[in-house]
């Protein structure tokens, strides 16, 4: 069975086509700069070679039509007819309180997704564009929505409520929702499979850290707290997002800089975080280069970044009543030894003993990087959100057929 997974952003579409019997990725790539000059589709061939196909791609429907054409093409394709695609799984960022698991997409579900747009105005509209495009281009093909927020719907009320008038929660749904749920679900379960321990009997902290980042506390297979909030701005310091900030600072900046709501949102989302602190880049590789050159602001930025992660790990150990497994994933978590070391440093009191030599020598592979004597198992688990979406899609299909 072949399942197409789509992740539609505001100006991009990422895709993977899976052969589910073998869990093999038989095609993958992405479109960038939709609606802009210089739009292109970049695909990865089975031998790892990258191919870039330029073209004018004005909107998401045209982009998905382009992807389907490439999948069918004689030169780069891997299917003979479009009917080989049995279903399409979509990453949907925000499901609000309505969705606590993946669902078959129906007209009723689409209506509910439209109601969630105000909670994720930047993310849900392009997600819906992908769904509408498949309805037009592959009529009758089942579609499944897999939500970033769903895994965190098990959080207890005291973990997701803000210290605001309760009426604002009732009127507008203002509360912590959390994101990266598909990744946190995958890596926490995979870590337990890798270690050969029961998932439903572990206290796990997962650190998905990259350009965006979040930490989640998982107890007995359920998320009990997570660092992102109503939006993906709360929590860790990220590539361009501020993370946790005194709300009073926001009104102060708005007043001093004569800034409106749109301006302050852009500042917190696009020009803060590692970019804002370092003045160098939002890309950790470029920041590390600057650190090697002695750039003091880059050094400060990395220390601040890692300190925030360490604080969340410590607080979630308290919330869990101890921790059995700590998992690093995401672009930074999987590849940057210095960040993992900084987070785990001086955490022996908590049972974390990092094998520094092993930590320095590995990247982007499933591996235990703690010492054999460490009470807490520390792992790198590369995330695979697309495979999780594909698996959920097959599971939903099996339920309805």
From TrEMBL:
What InterPro entries does the entry give?
Ac/propionate_kinase, Aliphatic_acid_kin_short-chain, Aliphatic_acid_kinase_CS, ATPase_NBD
Site annotated as Transition state stabilizer: where? 180, 241
EC number in record: 2.7.2.1
Q: Give the binding site residues for Mg(2+).
A: 7, 385
> What keywords tag this UniProt record?
ATP-binding, Cytoplasm, Kinase, Magnesium, Metal-binding, Nucleotide-binding, Transferase
| Cofactor-binding details, from the entry | Mg(2+). Can also accept Mn(2+).
List the SUPFAM superfamilies.
Answer: Actin-like ATPase domain
Q: Where does ATP bind?
A: 14, 208-212, 283-285, 331-335
Pathway(s) the chain acts in: Metabolic intermediate biosynthesis; acetyl-CoA biosynthesis; acetyl-CoA from acetate: step 1/2
Which GO CC annotations does the UniProt entry carry?
Answer: cytoplasm
Q: What does this protein do?
A: Catalyzes the formation of acetyl phosphate from acetate and ATP. Can also catalyze the reverse reaction.
Subunit info?
Answer: Homodimer.
* Family statement: Belongs to the acetokinase family.
What name appears for this protein in its UniProt entry?
Acetate kinase
Give the organism, scientific name. Answer: Fermentimonas caenicola
